[in-house]
């Protein structure tokens, strides 16, 4: 486990299946996760059964974010598009309930992942793409030292309109 005084990041367990099922099928989150169809319990069970595989094999890592004091599940943090040759990975985060947002959990989780990426995995950089309207996530990445490095116009379809994407990058100093 990766932890600080506030949260712990841990591997997914079979006991997380129902929680993951609810979160992955929350249509309000589909907009930020590029999901268009629901996930079945069967699919998520198989995912949990294989998520123990090494990041070098799967090119991704998803960890549950738990509060240290209550063991309550509050969200997920992901590494994706892991590229060991170019020493980089994308990072994403989701804090599910609004009462858990703006409590410092996302900041703590990203900080722990930055340390893990740079110190354990030896990455040169981590990056994230954030919808331009997601001001909270943009501020989060900027606060943690990520630099805006790009912008794609009309990248995400939103109902009858379009939304831009902002790219952030953090280099290992």
UniProtKB/TrEMBL annotation:
List the molecular function annotations (GO) for this entry. diamine N-acetyltransferase activity
Q: Which EC number(s) are documented for this chain?
A: 2.3.1.57
Transmembrane helix is among the record's keywords: no
Where does the source fall among the domains of life? Bacteria
Does the keyword Transferase belong to this entry? yes
What InterPro entries does the entry give?
Answer: Acyl_CoA_acyltransferase, GNAT_dom
Cited SUPFAM superfamilies: Acyl-CoA N-acyltransferases (Nat)
Keyword vocabulary terms for this entry: Acyltransferase, Transferase
Domain N-acetyltransferase, chain residue ranges per copy:
7-172
Name used for this protein in its record? Diamine N-acetyltransferase
Q: Which organism is it from?
A: Butyricimonas faecihominis
